[in-house]
Amino acid sequence: MCGISGAIGTNADLLGSAVHRMMRVMAHRGPDDEGFESLPMGSHEAAGVAAFGFRRLAILDLTEAGHQPMVDGRTGNCLVFNGEIFNFRWLRARLQTEGVVFTSTGDSEVLLKALSMWGEAAIDMLDGMFALAFYEARSRRVLLARDALGIKPLYVAESPYGLFFASEVRTILASGCVSDEYDPAGLASYFAYGAPQDPLTIHRAISSFPCGASQWVCLGDDGRPRRENARRYWRFPASQPARSEEQAHESLKRTLTATVREHLAADVPIAFFLSGGIDSGLLTAIATRELGSVSTYSVGFESTAAVSELPVAAATARLLGTDHHEVFIADTDIPLIWEGWMNASDRPSIDGLNTFLVTGAVKRGNAKVAFSGLGADEVFGGYPSFGRIPRLARFLRPFAMAPTRVRSSLMTMALPAFPRRWHSRLLRLASSSGRPIDLAIETRRMLDEESLRRLGLVAGDLGLREDYLPTALYDEFASGADDLFSTVRQVETMSYMSNTLLRDSDINSMAHSIELRVPFVSRFLMDEAARSPGSMHLQGGVPKALLRKVATDYLPAEVMNRPKTGFSLPVGDWMNGVMRDACESAVEALQKVPCLDTDAVKRLWKRFEVERHHTHWTRPMLLVALGSYVDRQSRTYADNAGAVKVRPAGRLNATNSV
After folding, report:
1. Are 225 and 211 in a shared domain?
2. Are 22 and 172 in contact (CB under 8 A)?
3. Does residue 195 lie within any of the structural domains?
4. Is pLDDT above 50 for 652?
5. For the segment 65-108, what is each residue's pLDDT rounded down to a tens digit?
6. At 58, phi and psi to the nearest 5?
């Protein structure tokens, strides 16, 4: 797990200095080592350069043999890569049959040799979490690629000085060569869903590289980087309902066990988040069978508003025989933790505080790798949306032909029967198309269209769909869903999980220099889960029915029969209590965002205060998280003497990036 950065252009001195600035702001991602390489790009006449920067968090092969950028002495090829290749032992054995000789024991050299041997086709063989840049000396071009489900982030930006890429948005901005101008479309998608939706960020010049894709970057004769058409190497597979439930159970068990076993590879101490629920308990149970005993961590709070998982987590730890650690957060700790969380953020998001807390505890316990049960709900159907969306679709089907105004009127008359906090969402659902995909998207919405319009963010004016999603992301949902369960899974996975949970988990764990592993988000495990129809995953209306059946082979009945609680933080209490002044100060900072109606921002914040008992804390957090980011951004880069303020020619063409 590390941080990568790079630049492609013709001014070697400028780009080299820029990449060194980028490396400095990524020290938290790789405190163990750093490296830099300058490589020739394009034709000899173009005299181009690819500058690669790297910060290392040593996890496998802790020696100098794992140093990056890693150069293949035989071919001159070069690699920088962030993440882990979990099936690297299998790839290593296959390469050795081809006569390849290795000088290290880690996955970086395996990946470099695989790319050198098989080229872009090697990406199709990888099971891992990664973002990489591979320099091919023979053709003097660079391959960018990202893992199938977006566990590891990769951002790209174009400027008059060349093409820049990095593991974090702030890293690209630190180059001093990319504009920090805010993007109204990215801001709109953030307000609509709680995090910017791929490929958008909140900066016009910077975009997120698509997950499950690879793309070659060349240098034209004019000295400008040129991105070739990207190749999608992975998409959601179709289900195969012909197999029996018993076959599905045994196949899933084998795949999950093998996945966790491969994820356990590390030359440093590892730890497991343990909530007392099935997901984290299942991963821990499999690991204890492989390793004998593991360290587990749980977090509790002084606040009585928080649902404490400490007792049930401790009970699970005793049953599994783990070395268990409890971390208690006192109310007096909250301001310092809050400030650390906000400062760690690489982009505005309403989520991630839980990961920041637990990985901080793991860091204090001297582990360098942590395991999380993230992904089980999205992949195997643990959210209420998996049952709710099909019911809503069936309920709304008879009204589909009625005019939108009629459907809205009928729902308005029915609103008194529902809690007030549900009213705006119910009205939006009534006016939607009624298609399952649109219903699934709507249930993830944060702000309604009217609120967004008042802020000055109109979807049609920003090139977004009416639901405030980028078209490229919506098209990803719309393709390949062969049943209602698959439809909901794609939305939950590619929007909420990829754009919110995984991105926030990466940035908040790396803030503590901790590598976070999420076995449930394995590409091959996703393929295995998708082979079974939704009826098996929600058998009898039981969430994650197929995964629960596997869990019964590993977990005691006492754990299996507990009600789901979840890791709940009393964030709303903190926002209205000890952190109130900090939150109001953050909202004031939004005056610095020229594309937002500042009066509308004030009115929205006031509305949230007045309707506090009917509004979930995540909605006012939209303003707080963005304001904190804006304030930090202005303070961090206000006196950046090396910055070159440039205006982009336009938004990075998203259609060329997919």
Report:
1. yes
2. yes
3. yes
4. no
5. 999 999 999 999 999 999 999 999 999 999 999 999 999 999 99
6. -75, 120
Residue type at 232? R
pLDDT of 330 strictly over 50: yes
Q: Please provide the distance, in angstroms rounded to a whole number, between the alpha carbons at the two ends of the chain.
A: 25
Same domain, 48 and 122: yes
**Is the pTM of the predicted complex or chain greater than 0.85?**
yes
Domain count, the chain: 4
Cis omega (within 30 of 0) for bond into 199: yes
CA angle 98, 101, 105 (to 5 degrees): 120
Contact by Cβ (8 Å): 174, 119: no
358 pLDDT more than 60: yes
Region 431-456 average pLDDT: 87
Nearest CA to 149 out of 235, 52, 217, 256 is that of 235
pLDDT at 294: 96
* 34: CB partners within 8 A, 6+ apart: 23, 53, 54, 55, 56
Above 80 in pLDDT, residue 601? yes
Residue 623 in 3-state DSSP?
helix
Based on the domain organization, do 353 and 282 belong to the same domain? yes
> Is there a domain that residue 566 lies in?
no
Which DSSP category does 101 fall into?
-
Q: Which residues have a Cβ under 8 Å from the Cβ of 82 and sit 6 or more positions away?
A: 1, 2, 3, 4, 29, 130, 131, 132, 152, 154, 167
Query: Rounded CA gap, 301 and 292, in Å?
Result: 30
What is the span of the domain harbouring residue 251?
245-379+505-560
Same domain, 210 and 353: no
Please check whether residues 335 and 224 belong to one and the same domain.
no
372: left (phi over 0), alpha (psi -120 to 50) or beta: beta
**CATH label of the domain that carries residue 252:** 3.40.50.620
Least Cα distance to 512 among 320, 344, 309 occurs for 344
Claim to verify: residue 67 and residue 207 sit in the same structural domain:
yes
pLDDT category of residue 643 using cuts at 50, 70 and 90: very low
Mark whether 168 and 59 lie in a shared domain.
yes
Final residue belonging to a domain, choices 436, 463, 490:
490
d(CA 125, CA 145): 13
